[in-house]
Amino acid sequence: MDEPGAVTLVDAHHHLWDLGANYYPWLSDQPEAHFFMGDYTPLKRNYLPADYRRDARRHNVLATVHCEAEWDRADQVGETRWLTGVHEREGMPTAIVAHAWFHTPEGEEVLARQAAFPLVRGIRSKPVTSLSPDRMTPGAPGTMQDPRWLEGFARLEKHSLSWDLRVPYWHLYEAAEVARAFPRTPIVLNHTGFPWDRSPQGLAAWQKAMEAIAREPNVHLKVSEFGLKDRPWDFESNRQVVLRAIGIFGIERCMFASNFPVAGLRIDYDTLVRSVARMLEGFSERERRRFFVDNAAAFYRLAGVSTNERQP
């Protein structure tokens, strides 16, 4: 029986990894110098379905979407193949957001191979970005203005795949141009657009960028990952971000995502879910169901998701 206050949800973004069997450079031997939450040493351990189930046990998880986890880029399809085996053994994840570079010579072939896996619903391919707004290099190889990148991006529609967009907020204006140029490609912005600067000026800049991309009707939002570098998880600060973000996009285009185990650097799964549910107390029951279940199920085409079923 569910505990009091348990939330029924689709988790639209989580990760799994087996460091003994597979190679993730950032978790093994190539530390990410600019990781957005600072020291991530606690993540350098296996995180498998049993670990996810333990973290999520207090809630009614109907389905999960696995987002690519920086697997060895020399074997981009390997992660999808491994996850398909995990699904066959464990019943999760329900769907996969795989990886394929858009601008590389082998990009077209890799994308086609990824699309052939039944669980694949979308691609996350991170464009080249800058560490700050004053260091941007528009048009450079791998950026969202690179003609080769755009040529590769255009293939998503051919394969009926969505794009998971993950960039700092100062790149959202460029992303809005991409969304406008490809209106039939569903796009979902990861991690609430990364509102890292919580000063009044920083939040104003983030909000302006979010408003720009939200004008494109094919763009949706994952309300997830409010963790900040070297700062604890703060309910009130994050509540303001969540309510602003939902106000910009409309709750009909927003979906819950845990980003576990990464979010676990700052908060446990149960507290995260209950906190976000508290933030949404002013919304109707129907609106909360759309946010926690229906929007993600529709975006990722999760057939048969029902509040009467419990997975994984």
TrEMBL record:
PANTHER family registered for this protein in UniProt: AMIDOHYDROLASE (PTHR43569), BLL3371 PROTEIN (PTHR43569:SF1)
Name this protein carries in UniProt: Amidohydrolase family protein
Species of the source: Ramlibacter ginsenosidimutans
Entries under Pfam families matching the protein: Amidohydro_2 (PF04909)
Ranges for domain Amidohydrolase-related: 10-302
GO terms for MF: hydrolase activity
Similarity field: Belongs to the metallo-dependent hydrolases superfamily.
